[in-house]
Amino acid sequence: MLMLPAFAMLAFVFVLPLAWFFTQALFAEGGIQQIASVIASRAVLQAILATNWISLLVTACVLLAGYPIAYYLANRRGLRFTLVVFCIIVPYFTSIIVRTYSWMVLLGRAGVINRLLQSAGLIEAPLPLLYNKLGIVIGMTYVLLPYMVLTLFATMKSIDRNLLLAASGLGAGGFAVFWRVYLPLSRHGILSGALIVFILSIGFFITPALMGGPSDVMVAMLIERSVEITLDWKSAAVMSLFLLAVTLVLYAVYYRITDLRRLMGA
Amino acid sequence: MQRILAGYVTAMCLLLMAPIVIVVILAFSGAGYLQFPPTALSLRWFARFLGDDQWRAALWYSLVIGAIACTIATTIGFFAAYALVRRPIAAKKLLLSLLLLPVIVPTVITAIAMYFLSARLGLVGNVLWIGCCHAVVALPVVLLILLATLQGVDVNLERAALSLGSSRLRLFLRVVVPLAAPGIISAALFAFLASFDELIISLFLTGIRAQTLPVRIWNSLHMQIEPTIAAVSAVLIGITGLVLLLDASLRRWRAARTGAGT
Amino acid sequence: MNRAPLPAGRGALELSGLTKRYGNERVVDSVSAAIRPGEFFSLLGPSGSGKTTTLMMIAGFIAPDEGRITVDGADFTAVPPQRRGFGMVFQNYAIFPHLDVFENVAFPLRARRVAQPEIRRRVGEALELVRLERFARRTVRQLSGGQQQRVAIARAIVFQPAIVLMDEPLGALDKNLRYDMQVEIKDIQQRLGMTVIYVTHDQEEAMNMSDRIAIMSSGRVEQVGPPDLIYERPANAFVGRFLGEANLLEGSIEKVHEGEAELRTRDGLLLRGRIDGTAQPGQQAALFVRPEKLAGGAGDAAANRANGILRRRSFLGSVIRTTIDIGPTTQLTMDSPNSGHGLHLQPGAEIAVHWPVAHSILLTP
């Protein structure tokens, strides 16, 4: 009974538009035959490849960058903990468009980094940091890093410190303790963190649209373009359905491996 | 080893904060282009932001839509969270995962679908409708905060109120809401922020009539990277900071409400 | 508190066949009891015995799968908790942290729309009764555990309920304070004449306060009765063991005669004891006797007698506990008052013990 408003809201403002959009756009004139031709088109295939490649790259970067931070947080308290959390949380809650804009200011040809490097005499011509894959990966890694750190932190916090003491007590060295005990124990967090980052990556729009080059088109951008520029609703619907299906499958996996109590205690 | 780790984490923290800090500094720059570090400080970009009718209108729409979204999301989210925590509902996890879907489904798809329907219904540019759409996206945030809050409210307090003759309505108004108040305010703040920062749905739904700040930034970014945007960004960052600050000060209150008596 | 005791006859509570299942498990299994007006009735049992679930069903927070709850003749089974009108005290006190002491106690009165001057008078009286009149405007966090408990009690009685339910109310207090609070609660109950249903896992607490105790185990009521009766004449081995120390000597019945029977232990010792109900020769049984009923020495022929080797002596303060081997598989525990002139045998010494047949109960499984 109390859940009713929430589900009604979800049904009317979320599920209904999606269902309406898919049925209307997919079964409009031309029928279903076109669906295959949309998926098989060169632009779409390229976008799918680019999306996967960029998402994998971003997930890897976020994991590598985030793991040590989460590890540090899990083992610290007091002021240092608060400071690091502050540095994670402030970007996390800052508007994505603002965060993307900030990186554009830093990475542009006449941006802060290139100017500093040039005035220091380290480079002569400005480095191409923006409007290419590098720009996308930097921007997306920055935006998604907090998700990974917070997920990993939740898992690491629940690792029993006594297990590590026991391992060293049994004669394992510092590296062995980490590699044989800590890493396997944090595997669950790595998996769910990587999944959530990948799920969010494949649907990313703002950052790649602003920071990518002309050839770096991700699926979400292609969807937006077919609606905004070519008014090709059918292609947009086909690609959306494909992207949605992949997202939901991955979310189902995430649902299976994630403990809800952790989510609820977040 | 510990020292390398500490060094790395310090560097990452600087890197995480650097873009935000630099943009805020640039917003106060006196130069006509983006130069860092700025040679002179001024408020001219803020003046230009607030002096421009379109930017002012965008700020106004952002605030109004944010307020609508936050009211709707917090209200329905509170009831849903209460039911999830207190009622013996089967498949709680499944229900919650459904309620969290709006953050999982790529926003571009949601936005296009919403636009597709809104265009037919003539709702593009309707502030109330945009607020509703934002509320759906803000709902997961509200739910997660309120679930944690309500789980912290001792169920025996509610039982005590009932055993003392309190009606269900009185239980809600005099016990549950006051006890959960810090969490409710927190949830409302973050719901507001979620709407205030939302870009993609706004991009499709605001039309030309009700453009919000992120939409205006987006449109300007396609033209040029000018310092006015830095000033607008600084305002957005400032509001984020304010929300986080308020939330932090609510935390103590929250602890006092849910931690006492046990 | 200058208040007339409750009108006699209000506050009778009858449970008949109360049952609660979670999945296949019967957490509460057809619990029945008739609680009299003004009675102090305890539900005593180990954790997981279903006593709190039973109380929650009485309070109306958990709906029973079977059975009925009747209050003064009226069926309360489906009445929602807020209309039952029972006072309730919780283990963790459940004081509203957003209200001060006065408002906590006034809560049930405000819910009943009592006029403000009347509220002031009655809250004042209730706080006086629990000796907290000077703390009315304190917040909960400024109170000690014992004070918080008093607030909870004042709040549960301020609207003069005929029945008050208490769920391990002293569980969080330390031992000395607990005893003082037991006396205080009992005192208030007797002054106001209300019925109290009291859940506890502490045997001494239940015996100290209760008019009658229901011993619960795995969802069932094992025995109901006044504390001394349950202590002296347990209905079965579980009750005997749960309510203090017990010797239980197993064997088979040889002869039954007019409420008495003879039992041959596995080590061949012949003992006599009282028996309730029927028993057949050859039936397996256990002879129950409390350690403090045992005495050193040979005793006369009318008593149960045994000889053995002293195995261990434990000094427990007011009592000295002796463990005696009286056969290859049988041990006896004897408690002697630490009167200063008892036996001072060392482990390994031979010792004779005896105890009255009147304090020996034969329990059949």
Which key phrases capture this entry?
heterotrimer; B: 262 residues; mainly alpha; MetI-like fold; C: 365 residues; OB fold (Dihydrolipoamide Acetyltransferase, E2P); six-stranded mixed beta sheet; five-stranded antiparallel beta sheet; 20 strands; 23% helix; 35% strand; elongated
List the helices and strands and how they pair.
The complex is a heterotrimer of chains A (about 270), B (about 260) and C (about 375).
Chain A: H1 4-26, H2 33-40, H3 42-74, H4 78-92, H5 96-107, H6 112-119, H7 133-157, H8 161-169, H9 174-185, H10 187-202, H11 206-211, H12 219-228, H13 233-257, H14 260-264
Chain B: H1 2-27, H2 44-51, H3 53-86, H4 92-99, H5 101-104, H6 107-121, H7 127-151, H8 155-163, H9 168-197, H10 200-205, H11 213-221, H12 227-259
Chain C: E1 13-22, E2 25-35, E3 40-44, H1 51-59, E4 66-71, E5 74-75, E6 87-89, H2 101-111, H3 116-129, H4 145-157, E7 163-167, H5 175-192, E8 195-200, H6 203-209, E9 212-217, E10 220-225, H7 227-232, H8 237-242, E11 247-257, E12 260-265, E13 270-274, E14 284-289, E15 295-296, E16 304-315, E17 319-327, E18 330-337, E19 350-355, E20 361-363
Parallel strand pairs in C: 3-8, 3-9, 6-7, 7-8
Antiparallel strand pairs in C: 1-2, 1-4, 4-5, 9-10, 11-12, 11-14, 12-13, 14-20, 15-19, 16-17, 16-19, 17-18
Secondary-structure-based class of chain C equals: alpha+beta
Largest sheet of chain B: none
What's the CATH first level of the largest domain in chain C? Alpha Beta
Quote the average pLDDT of chain B: 87
The low-confidence runs of chain B, each spanning 5 or more residues with pLDDT under 50, are none
What is the correct CATH architecture of the largest domain in chain C? 3-Layer(aba) Sandwich
Structural class of chain B: mainly alpha
DSSP helix fraction of chain B: over 70%
Proportion in β-strands of chain B: under 5%
Q: What is the name of the CATH architecture of chain B? A: Orthogonal Bundle
Please state the CA-atom Rg of chain C, rounded to the nearest Å.
25 Å
Strand content of chain C: 35-45%
How many H/I helical runs of chain C?
8
Q: Indicate how many domains the architecture of chain C comprises.
A: 2
Per the CATH scheme, the topology name of the largest domain in chain C is Rossmann fold
In short:
By secondary structure, chain A is mainly α. Chain A is built from 14 helices and no strands.
